[in-house]
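Re: zinc ion structure - here you go.
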Amino acid sequence: MNIISLSDYSIYIDDSFSALQKFLAEKKYSDVVVIVDENTKENCLPLVQKIITTQNIIETKSGEENKNLSTCEQIWQQMLTFNVDRKALCINLGGGVIGDMGGFAASCYKRGIDFINIPTTLLSQVDSSIGGKLGIDFKYGKNLIGLFKNPKAVFIAAPFFKTLPQRQFINGWAEIFKHALIRDKQQWEKIASIDIFSVDMNDIVFHSLQIKKAVVEADPFENGLRKILNFGHTIGHAIEAYSLENEKDSLLHGEAIAIGMICEAFLSEKKCGLSESALNEITTVLLKHFPKHDISNFKHEALLATMRIDKKNEGTTIMASLLSSIGHCEYDIPINQQEIIESIAYYNAL
Ligand SMILES: NC(=O)c1ccc[n+]([C@@H]2O[C@H](COP(=O)([O-])OP(=O)(O)OC[C@H]3O[C@@H](n4cnc5c(N)ncnc54)[C@H](O)[C@@H]3O)[C@@H](O)[C@H]2O)c1
Ligand SMILES: [Zn+2]
């Protein structure tokens, strides 16, 4: 079993769920409630049902469009129907949607009950398990309502990937590539050439989380270093938002971030000292896993408008985190409109 110890909780990476069993036995919660969606109810709950024996299952509807207050109301209603008290435990069994929303709902219910996360997508295992960000979407945008609060524990296991759609699996790899690019050249070299479908995922997730842990612990409130986690996200987020609004089969987060990383690697070469050979290598590896998506008709003005309201900016200047080399990332680098458009042109010409 691999364990990541953080300041107030631990992440257990273990296919046998023995740590989960021990946790539940030791804590003696008055009651346990599990939040799932229809997919994790069918595919993931059976994997833990020997250990989590409660009948209190709250089923929500999957999808980002349901990560909202109205689903939280249904969760709270169900918790009241089950008579869940303040000494109970909430288990979030699902991807990032269940993790963010279940943690938020648990933190508000009767002024807050304990919760643990069992992330079942690759993205939620490598990204949302650390950082304590909880929340829901609200009328005007994603994750607008929420708070920082850590779970009591996180339990990670690879067998969940057996049923995870392949597109969702590859989606999670974007953040794994990002972690290696910003902090760990050796890991990048390893994962750049492996077959992502036949590698020991617990080992990969463990390594990736260690990188995120080091960064988050060095800067818990995102005053400086933590901004390097945003590599690929300045342009990637804008592409994700545009795609969500305008494309029928819209890009997943990781898919948009992969495009963002290619564009920002281009900017890294222009502005931050990244070598041309490193740019070519990053582009080739990312394109192999995230085949070219046609963004040539994405309106520059709309993309720039999204980038201008990015939280990381200072005033109206768009700030990015760029690579000085593979494994090293710098932050608070101003990028201008012309440079951004050139970087998108670089992607379009691939
Ligand atoms: N808190 C954070 O730090 C953080 C970080 C990154 C992303 N997020 C949030 O995470 C969300 C995206 O999470 P996601 O990518 O995990 O997507 P998701 O939670 O929407 O899950 C993707 C799909 O996979 C299904 N699914 C999940 N596990 C499965 C399994 N093992 N087998 C079969 N189907 C399965 C789900 O039902 C869903 O349909 C976004 O809302 C984003 O804002 C939060
Ligand atoms: Zn991301």
